[in-house]
Amino acid sequence: MKIKISLLSVIIIAVLLFAGCNRGTKQSHGVIAAETQVPESAEELEEAQKDTIVEIPLEKKKNVFVLGSDGEDYNFLWKNGELIQTSVMKIGFSSVFASGNDVFVAGSAFAMEGGAYLWKNGEFQVLEQENNTGTRAASVFVSGNDVYVAGWKSEYSEERANLPQYAVLWKNGKAQTLGNGIANFVCVLNNDVYVLGADNDTIILWKNGTAQNLGKGRPARLYISGNDVYAVGWVNNDIILWKNGVAENKGRERGTSVFIYGSDVYEAGMIADNAVIWKNGEHQLLGEGYALSIYVSGGDVYAAGQFNKGEYYGATLWKNGVVQEGYDGYSAHFVMVSD
Length: 339
Prior knowledge:
The chain is mostly beta strands. The protein has helices at residues 7-21, 42-49, and strands spanning 2-6, 27-28, 31-32, 53-57, 63-69, 75-79, 82-86, 91-99, 102-109, 116-120, 123-126, 133-143, 146-155, 165-171, 174-180, 182-189, 192-199, 202-207, 210-216, 218-225, 228-235, 238-243, 246-252, 257-261, 264-271, 274-279, 282-297, 300-308, 313-319, 322-323, 331-338.
């Protein structure tokens, strides 16, 4: 959004102000009032304004999205502290993504045989599912007019447990099986689709359906910065960052969620009974509770979790260590910021 101000109008106002304050002189405190010919008609004014428009960009407001639950049957979506969506009973929200004025949420039914779902501005869509399979949606990403969801499927049988799992990528609701394992995160850069997941204890990064083995560990996050793709995982209790497939050790694992912002490593978790965030290994206690998700935007650090609010424990968002108002669930488990 931009405000347009006529430079000519500014000059005219300045002339009048100087004339009012310094009658009979064109100079005051070393400032010389501009010699300006005032247009005599609307046509002259319009012509003069054509090349004198000053555009002043306004700072875009950040929108903070938080997912949480009541601890039993329902999940919630908050935007800037306002509840904007409640799930159907026994369906959980796992990820949220904002694109323009549209808000997309990925989620799944609680039951083992339940399906993977996508909401756009609250409108419900069932993602493609084969017969006799259970599906889960873990992450959503929007690129142009295409909506991508990452998750997994497994055969459903009441007689068997620990059935094989297969990583799945949905594009506009249509499923593509990527291989063995699960898919936790998805992002798109320059028409290339990246999916981060795991097969048992091995981290896998798929690019356009082709798998790359990143080593033993657990996937933690996948994101884009500029023209680079970053995958983050925990390997042997270390945080490992892969930038375009090249690994870099970022220090010891401490929390349950990690976010890398520039050269800084942020984590969320708990110590004893206290919610904690770490920055490059230095911890900050947030109070009694726990932190499950962390996001950094423009130097502001957001953490979502649960906090002791006196009479009860409740869903909480911290911004730079300060509890934010408006979250009335049992716990919050995901936060993201749309710039």
